[in-house]
Design a protein that fits this description.
Distance between the termini: 68 Å
Number of helices: 3
Mean pLDDT: 85
Shape: elongated
Low-confidence stretches: none
Largest sheet: 7 strands, antiparallel
Order of helices and strands: HHEEEEEEEH
């Protein structure tokens, strides 16, 4: 009897492990945050969208994680340990899309911006494109 209980417990643990690996936990909780940012923007608040930026002037040509502040006023690039800077890339052209990100290029490839596909429309509207 004890062996059957042990096998049942091990089976349950294996099943739970498979189920947890099938659920995209990051996407589950990230979706909640994205919806919150969208609601705040719709309510007229200034919202910070996480992104990755590569820009000659703002990041020295390196990819950097940061945020784009969107809402009242100009779009600002916010990076840890740096002063907020105006982000005016000009016309953006979509280069690649997958489930996790959409990539835009501007200024002959000198600027590259990656955002979550759900948040790209709000940022593009704020940039006027």
């Amino acid at each position: 009897m004890g062996e059957l209980v042990g096998v049942a417990i091990r089976g349950f643990i294996v099943l739970a492990g498979h189920l947890l690996s099938a659920v995209d936990v990051v996407e589950l909780f990230g979706g909640r945050r994205r919806k919150g940012r969208q609601a705040a923007l719709a309510g007229g608040e200034r919202v910070e969208f996480p992104c990755v930026l590569r820009d000659e002037e703002l990041t020295g040509g390196r990819e950097r994680r940061g945020r784009l502040a969107v809402g009242d006023g100009p779009v600002r690039w916010l990076a840890p340990g740096r002063e907020p800077a105006a982000f005016e890339p000009g016309e953006l052209t979509m280069q690649a899309v997958d489930r996790q990100s959409v990539t835009f290029h501007a200024a002959g490839g000198r600027t590259e911006l990656r955002l979550h596909p759900d948040e790209a429309p709000a940022v593009l509207r704020a940039l006027g494109g």
